[in-house]
Write a structure and sequence with these properties.
The protein folds into 2 domains: 225 residues, 3-Layer(aba) Sandwich (Rossmann fold), CATH 3.40.50; 65 residues, Alpha-Beta Plaits (2-Layer Sandwich). It contains 11 helices and 13 strands. The strands form 3 sheets. Strands 5-6-7-3-8-9 form a 6-stranded mixed sheet, with helices on both faces.
């Protein structure tokens, strides 16, 4: 697969009144986003996600480094911009307009008109499942319907790349599922999706690869198969007493839960599982289950960001 988005050493510093007030929003970002994939771009608030999006859209300029979109370094060129669809977080549309009127307005901004514009509006409304609500006022739309119209707007120019900022935030479970299905279909039809989101479960369900930022630095990047590993083993026991559990915990095991004589123990990969099971037997704990635990994206996110923050504290 060829990369449709490439950055190499991309850095953005927002200068303050004095040098000590400079904000390093992005530092030495190097990544590739490949065609026909969903790339989840993750990070805490203030980690540099929005700055990255603004750079990719040509809205701001980098302090240093290089980037290419569709093989071109001039990301602000009109021929490149037409190939990118963007859905901002919390997009606002005048509530006195109808859904199709919003799309007509944006279509004209893309340079579309006449029958071509009508065909594209019909097409994108069908893609997002909003054809029946096209003549309803925006003020009568639910939040999920507004997100669908926003996604339709991003698709008007039939872009190769979709950059989506928090596409499912604030939606109910059914609406999230519907948006997720639409995004998966767009990928299957050949679109490349770059999604910035705090909804980690949604990202985990549909992304091919993810990147995790912390304070402007890329901390991890790869496929979920590569990044999410079977790191721990969960052991559940009965007949648990505080004294017996304390003996097991001494081995480096973490006590996660204890209710009515039953306990859940988390055994790190560095601790031999058979030593733990032998200690449970010695302490007369009844073994209920032993389950390998596959790390979730949320756990990976917390671990990676936490390790990055600890590393920065140690270096000060």
């Amino acid at each position: 697969m060829s990369a449709v988005i490439e950055t190499n050493g991309l850095t953005k510093v927002y200068e303050g009144a004095v040098k000590s007030q400079d904000v390093h929003a992005l530092t030495n970002l190097s990544l590739q986003v490949y065609e026909k994939e969903i790339f989840g771009y993750l990070g805490p608030n203030g980690s540099g996600k929005t700055t990255t999006i603004k750079l990719l859209l040509g809205l701001i300029f980098s302090t240093s480094g290089k980037m290419k979109i569709l093989g071109k370094s001039d990301v602000g060129a009109p021929e490149i911009r037409r190939k990118i669809g963007f859905l901002p977080e919390g997009a606002y549309y005048p509530d006195f307009l109808k859904g199709e009127e919003v799309l007509k307005y944006y279509g004209r901004l893309y340079g579309l008109g006449g029958k071509d514009l009508k065909r594209r509006i019909d097409k994108v409304l069908d893609i997002v499942g909003m054809a029946r609500a096209r003549k309803r006022l925006i003020r009568g739309y639910s939040k999920g319907m507004r997100q669908r119209i926003g996604l339709a707007q991003a698709l008007l120019s039939d872009p190769q790349i979709l950059i989506l900022d928090e596409p499912t935030t604030g939606l109910d479970p059914i609406a999230r599922k519907e948006i997720r299905d639409i995004l998966s279909r767009l990928r299957d039809e050949g679109k490349t999706l770059f999604i910035s989101s705090h909804e980690l479960l949604e990202v985990e369900l549909i992304s091919n690869r993810v990147g995790i930022l912390s304070e402007g630095e890329l901390q991890a990047c790869g496929t979920l198969t590569d990044l999410l590993t079977d790191r721990d083993t969960v052991v559940q026991v009965a007949r648990a007493t505080p004294e017996a559990l304390a003996k097991v915990v001494e081995l480096g095991v973490r006590l996660e839960d204890e209710v009515d004589g039953k306990a859940t123990l988390r055994v790190p990969s560095a601790v031999p599982i058979y030593s733990v099971l032998e200690k449970c037997k010695t302490e007369n704990l009844a073994l209920l289950s032993v389950t390998p635990h596959r790390e979730t994206l949320e756990e990976l996110f917390v671990r990676v960001v936490g390790e990055a923050e600890q590393k920065r504290r140690n270096s000060r």
